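#struct-pred

JT: dropping the chains for the assembly here, can someone run the whole complex?
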Amino acid sequence: MFAVEVSDHIMIAHSFRGAVFGPAQALHGATFVVSAAFMAESLDANGIVVDIGRAFDVLKTVLNPLNYRNLDEIPEFKDVNTTTEYLTKHVFEQLAGAVRDDRLGRNGREIAVIRVTVAESPSARAWYEAPVW
Amino acid sequence: MFAVEVSDHIMIAHSFRGAVFGPAQALHGATFVVSAAFMAESLDANGIVVDIGRAFDVLKTVLNPLNYRNLDEIPEFKDVNTTTEYLTKHVFEQLAGAVRDDRLGRNGREIAVIRVTVAESPSARAWYEAPVW
Amino acid sequence: MFAVEVSDHIMIAHSFRGAVFGPAQALHGATFVVSAAFMAESLDANGIVVDIGRAFDVLKTVLNPLNYRNLDEIPEFKDVNTTTEYLTKHVFEQLAGAVRDDRLGRNGREIAVIRVTVAESPSARAWYEAPVW
Amino acid sequence: MFAVEVSDHIMIAHSFRGAVFGPAQALHGATFVVSAAFMAESLDANGIVVDIGRAFDVLKTVLNPLNYRNLDEIPEFKDVNTTTEYLTKHVFEQLAGAVRDDRLGRNGREIAVIRVTVAESPSARAWYEAPVW
Amino acid sequence: MFAVEVSDHIMIAHSFRGAVFGPAQALHGATFVVSAAFMAESLDANGIVVDIGRAFDVLKTVLNPLNYRNLDEIPEFKDVNTTTEYLTKHVFEQLAGAVRDDRLGRNGREIAVIRVTVAESPSARAWYEAPVW
Amino acid sequence: MFAVEVSDHIMIAHSFRGAVFGPAQALHGATFVVSAAFMAESLDANGIVVDIGRAFDVLKTVLNPLNYRNLDEIPEFKDVNTTTEYLTKHVFEQLAGAVRDDRLGRNGREIAVIRVTVAESPSARAWYEAPVW
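RK: done, full complex below.
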């Protein structure tokens, strides 16, 4: 399996509900370094998994509505904890949609798997990996 | 599959037996940066894989008996080479035990896989990944 | 000149006032990786600049009131923008105070300079360096 | 599954054919940080996946013909785009050959999988992972 | 002294003249990670050294004519070796010009020093630091 | 001022004497990532600070007697604590000697300053910087 992975970052505020979160129940924030890996069984005729320029653009498009925001105020996240884990799947769903819509510059059917990794600090990170189809 | 990974480090001395190790047969040492990834098919009701605070605590508890030690003098390691690879599985076994005992703050049955990565230098690392059950 | 530097991190929310900040005028957040370097002309009798364990403790003590907080709500910061640059000096002042009070485990007079570096993302960071005395 | 991974780097020039590459159609270059992971179900009698010294040597031997070269001028690459993805598989094939020839200091049959990761910048990387046999 | 530092990267080809360069006399290439640090004695009324958004823009403007290029073909570099060291000063001169022309969003007279760091690989880097005025 | 910096690493065992070291009084070890920066006011006729290949070789020559060793058993270190700080100056002295003996491929008089940085873990490092002459 081949993979191409690109990274970007966002700076957000949020708070969590639940005693398990301890001090992170208060409004705080994070720099999230987000990496998106697109995986395919074979390279296309150009010798690539996907156009890396488009991969950067699609990732930025997905992250833009979150960047410099208080996630607590985004209606879509009203009933959830926007944990690092939760966000990995949120980004995955958006990227998988872009792949299915052929927005990565390649027949989306040829992209098998996406893995989204979100690093919240030098010592903690989360990822979500699943088939696109 | 979701994963949450936390990292810590230890500073140990040890030596190896076997011509394959060359100069590393002498007593030397290492800073081991140890990362523990816990993987689950779904998030719990709080939106997490495991309580990250407990993950840090359990990892520290597992690493503590090794930190600032000469591994050659620890009875458990008397008959083995405490290679980077060997230690990945040693840490895995301890963490898997903690998961099975529900010490990560979640029903251990819901944690499917653990991967332990140990980096010994900027240019070399090892990992061990296996199902918990 | 000798230096010893230790690092820790905090996760905070804040907002900025001033058109220059563009989208960062909204409430957002950051993971700040904070490094504190203590510099001295000579090592002490133990062969160290300062006790590295105390350096970690003092840094954590300085960062603790900021961690998991919305900096906009801390009275001390009411009239300022808590920019990365601003925070470098805030941490410096606290650390310099600790050095002057001999809380680093060495006669504070022997510590000449402190540099505080705060990384806000993989592509941006700030620092403040000044004499302690 | 156990893995041991070693890293090295090369500095190359090349150009790409195809409108998808935009400005990268011009002759440019890259520092490629190449990591080779060897995976096995069990450790050998010494407690290792493979001799890490041999792993470094074999990786260097594979990379040496590419280092400080214009890849456009290497006959083997005449009809292909030497993309980051393409190179991951090129290195994989060479390493898999070394494993099959028992050049890693262990019965090659005991090495199950190789993954080659090539980082082209702090924000982009590719990998190829496949069974050796 | 306060400093703010931003980073970007370019991918270039070039060759060197002189026996000291050994195999690097051949056409090869590099990913250069370029960091620009702007230093000032005091923060401005907004609490910043310079507008970090402008710092990123100015750095990108300076790097753009070099990115995806064969430096051997750029007339300005015809008679020089475009070593990592040489490029640190080339970027410095461009950035210092931007500061002197008040293009960083602050009276250029208030920026005292610039340091440009260029990393060519995980194990080698160069920098140039000098007063702006 | 120009600088060129190269990095390598060693894996050593040692112990410390003095209550200030707490658990590090026991025999333990470290991976030390050692960076050597050579600084000069001007580039030479080739456009370099020093021959980077020689810089790597000289650094390796200096580190080699320490690598895979128990520093407690090296006569030169019999009466000292081989702290990270102490080792920065030890390496500095060896490198300064090499510069003064013109072993860096340039008239040693033209190298003004050396800085040696030793990272012992992701969260702690030390450096020593001084004029060569």
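JT: nice. The mean pLDDT of chain B is 97. The first helix of chain B runs from residue 52 to 63.
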